[in-house]
Amino acid sequence: MSSIADELICYAECVNKSDLLPLISFLVVASLLLFAFYLKSKTPIQRVSSFAGAQLLMIGAIVASFSTMECSRMLTIEMYLAYVFISTGIMLFLPGSYYKILIRHHNAKPISEIVDWVDDFVNTLSEDSNVYYFDSAIPKAFASGKAIFVSIGMLELFDEQELKAVLAHEAWHLRHNNKTPILRQLSLMTFTKFRPEQELELMADRFAEKIVSKGALESARAKLI
Ligand SMILES: [Zn+2]
């Protein structure tokens, strides 16, 4: 029975001797960079593609390492298992708690501090949800996990019916978030300019039209920069 330390030494020797060392180093570094980029990125497309890219590069590094193993293969298998557990943990844990990171990132505050009807309205559409506002002159709203974020700019520019249309749109996303694939859950669902190819956006809009009105939704969209 060899100890973990023996395996580590053996592993380091195998990788060190191998012609694949530069490739493995490159893959690990590139994967970590992409993961750092993923944590910093702001748009859903950047987030999803950088996370998927980081995963693929790491799998490449593991496959390359595995092919260099001449002594014990145990450690690589253990590393691979650890990697699977950690990445699965991130994928399961992050969608549900990502909004907490967003609250800190945007320095967001509960909307009940400044507008009293919003939380009640949203909770009739999606239970146990919270609405936050953040300091930005640009009118925008997005949803993540169990939270909806609305900018000050939107609160100032939109009348109550338009705001309700936006909130209903985002509440639809909250209701359907856990039914979407995990990678999509990681992305933020925003109230953006109309893009007909986005089926989920269309469905969220239809819901908002039904809850509030088509006119309110249209005038809300017209106010987006
Ligand atoms: Zn949307």
Give your account of this protein's structure:
The protein is α+β, with helices and mostly antiparallel strands and 225 residues long. It has two domains: 4-97, no CATH class; 107-222, Zincin-like (2-Layer Sandwich). 67% of the residues lie in helices and 8% in strands. The protein has ten helices and five strands, in the order H-H-H-H-E-H-E-E-E-H-H-H-E-H-H. It has helices spanning 4-17, 21-40, 44-68, 74-106, 118-125, 152-157, 160-176, 182-186, 199-211, 214-222, and strands at residues 109-110, 130-134, 141-144, 147-151, 189-190. A five-stranded mixed sheet has the order 1-2-4-3-5. Strand 3 and strand 4 (147-151) form a beta hairpin. The longest helix has 33 residues, at 74-106. The radius of gyration is 23 Å and the shape is elongated.
Question: Main attributes?
Answer:
225 residues; Zincin-like; 2 domains; binds zinc ion
Strand content: 5-15%
The tally of helices reads 10
The count of DSSP E runs of length 2 or more, i.e. the number of strands, is 5
Q: What is the overall shape?
A: elongated
- CATH architecture title of the largest domain: 2-Layer Sandwich
Classify the secondary structure makeup into a structural class. Answer: alpha+beta
Instruction: Name the CATH class of the largest domain.
Output: Alpha Beta
End-to-end C-alpha gap: 66 Å
Q: What's the CATH topology name of the largest domain? A: Zincin-like
Largest sheet: 5 strands, mixed
Number of structural units classed as domains: 2
Helix and strand succession?
A: HHHHEHEEEHHHEHH
What is the mean pLDDT?
83
What is Rg? Answer: 23 Å
